[in-house]
Amino acid sequence: MTKIFIDPSCKILCMHISTLKETSYDKANDCSMVEDEKNQVVNFDDYMQQNYSLLKTNDALFWTDSQYKSMMFVEFKNGDYKEKDLRLKCYDSIIMLSKILGLSINQLSGIISYTLVHNDPRNSIQKNIVDRSNITISSRMKHILPSFSEMVGSLLYNIEVLTSDEFELKYL
User: Fold this and answer.
1) pTM of the complete model
2) Longest C-alpha distance within the chain, in Å?
3) Contact 114/93 with Cβ under 8 angstroms?
4) DSSP character for 112?
5) pLDDT tens digit string along 30-78?
6) Are β-strands 17-19 and 40-43 bridged in parallel, bridged antiparallel, or unpaired?
7) N or C: which end of the chain has fewer CB within 10 A?
């Protein structure tokens, strides 16, 4: 059962709906991180690029309940990333969503979560490095969480890091 919803009352965002496959598309590697074509999300990055091209924002936005009381930003990363870029995307996304929805940042902080969907090193050229260094996948994937910890409670309700497979199992 899907856990992805779009609030139809947010008309300005509803003009930027796309499938998860389209939203997670990585031009550099010519592939999508999530292959799902049934579930639609707000392509938040698309909306922002059309209206505020200088800001850095997260890729997707959706509601996680059918009453539209909980939301999630999703950032898809199929390769290297800089933690400071992810943090900047979160800040810019929250500020702009606050403006769009007419909610204070304090109001949003209790209802919006963030998920980083990152490629699994077991399925990439990094596999040999991970195997040789004996790093567990979970610690390698979740190293970003400590730098985001101060955002929980003040800007975000929750933060998680998932592989593409984990994201699909949890939300689709």
Assistant:
1) 0.85
2) 51
3) no
4) E
5) 999 999 999 999 999 999 999 998 999 999 999 999 999 999 999 999 8
6) antiparallel
7) N
User: For the purposes of burial, counting CB atoms within 10 Å of the CB of 73, is it exposed (0-12), middle (13-18) or buried (19 or more)?
Assistant: buried
Cα torsion at 87, 92, 98, 100 (round to 10°)? -140
Token representation of residue 81: 């990333």
Residue 39, CB-side half-sphere exposure with 13 Å CA sphere:
22
Q: At 73, which helix (H) or strand (E)?
A: strand 71-77
**For the chain, how many residues are written?**
172
Q: Which residues pair with 76 in a beta bridge?
A: 117
CB 5 within 8 A of CB 36: no
